[in-house]
Amino acid sequence: MQIIPWKFQRKLSYGYIFHKSLLLVLPLLVFALVRLNESQFTQLALILIVLSKWRMFAVRPRFWPANIRANAIDLMVGISIVLFMTHSYSAIVQFSWAIAYAIWLIVIKPATSSLMISMQAGIGQLCALSALYLSWANGPIYGLTLLTGIICYLSARHFYDAFDESYSRLLSYLWGYLGAGLAWLLGHWMLFYGSFAQITVILTVVAYGIGAIYYWDHKEKLTKGLQRQFVVLMIAIVLIVLVFSNWGSKVV
Q1: Same domain as 200, residue 166
Q2: Is residue 27 assigned to a domain?
């Protein structure tokens, strides 16, 4: 067993603390810029989120697509947090979003276990879809369809890469296609439950059900009873959402 010298341990701890401190600065800067309540400062907050991932481009251009895909979930969460703040006029609520973003950066994002990576994918998809339909519900349907498909694809790819799935690209394309198809279909009604669009609820429920079944199957702990529970719960929630929706109006 290699023993790390005490001085090196101290430097390592100082570097770790400094790195974590820098991660706290970004949420605070975003919060301060959004509180100024000007569109240009909100745009600057979004630019800061993107610039925080500058290392994606600190390599040869041929590696950029892979780096963008690997950092897509982090970008989706960060941009979504800014949009959530802009739709929250209370300073307490906005600061709560800043705290949530700090927790994401310090605790959730660095985690590397398959369970935590699965959570990252689920959080990224939920945040991105919620922010998309909260901010751009009246946008053209083809734009919503395209962006929904991209969000679903990137989230699925992040999820399946945690398990070294040999068909991760194909499965991710299928999930992206399903998300885009639902966006095209349900976008003609654009129903909302509070701040959540109907399509966000449906895709989140289905993603949770499929993801949970895949995760437990990969861990070789999926029983017939557990699988049945996930499927029944998933179908029941989707049916409740569809049956009790007011299809006669544009917004619920």
Answers
A1: yes
A2: yes
